Task: structure prediction
Amino acid sequence: MLPFSYAIRNLFRDKTRLLQTVGGSALVVLLVMGALALNQGMKRVLAASGSPHNVILLGAGSEESVQRSEVAEQAAGIAASEIPGVAETMSTRAVSTEIHYMGLARFPDGEEAQALFRGITPTALLAHPEVQLIEGSYPKTGEIMVGRLAWRQMKRDASTLAPGAALKLEDQELKVSGVFAAPGTVMESEVWMPISDLRVLAQRDTVSCVVLRLDDPDDFAEADLFAKRRLDLELSALRESDYYARLSSFFAPLRAMTWLTAGLIAAGALFGGLNTLYAAFASRIREMATLQAIGFNRRALLASLIQESTLASLTGALLASIVAIVLLDGRVVPFSIGTFTIEISPSVALAGILTGLFLGLLGALPPAIRCLKPALPVALRSS
Result:
């Protein structure tokens, strides 16, 4: 076998080629890591947003979108009294009557941004215990409280949604009373307000859904039986976790488009790298023939050429990993129903390393085999 130092020295024989190989590999690895982190981030936030303890009572036929759902307001009281196993805190049942409304928020500077408004009652905090007020106070009439990432969803500065700030919804001025957190869920991108206010602004005489928190997730069968039995209410019962799982399936084409885009760019970079290596190895046919003449077999030469390519590709993968950690890790990305955080997890980093290794092997084999293919006498006479 040729010494490993031979492959390392050959990397620096043509610095332009080395930069092209490292740069192309870094681009492909960065795209793969970015696409994987985006997909994982979106799936993670949707999975975390739904609790198996929570049951959502929606209008029959509106299981795909809570915003289109219409439920009679008295359904909450009926459900709370008839469904066993509803969680209680200080004799108050964890039953939340809610209106979900997508509207345009208008800021004092005249700019507008779309936001998801959720009309709630105080019992919403019992049904969604992951929600915690971190600044300010619970909203009263004419007030709202915003998720800590709502400003990113609306592409605004954080100060425009700080306590004391104001915005308008349907020409009604609303004051920000507080900021809440619900780590890892889409609720952190929402705007919450008293349900009575949102009912007037949205001009609704029904609610969007009723959310019940159960002590035991296995009691869902009782909630489902209630929805099927009370035909007069026209309800459909879904586990909250199942509802967000359906949303995850809805966004599957978007995630597929992310992979497709990354794949097309990666294919272009791969073919560009192949052309570079074809040109580089073609100029070394006589050198390879000389090494064969002094006793090295073709297998050893092939291994050395692959070592060169793999070293360059793994260097690119390392560079891409550093860029991903610096520029992507922790970045908050908005999408239609909320925001999610990109995380460069160990699985994402491993995928980047494996991609770099794959590029080094796949990119080197065809040009290396072509370089070593000519017969020894022909190769020694090549220019």
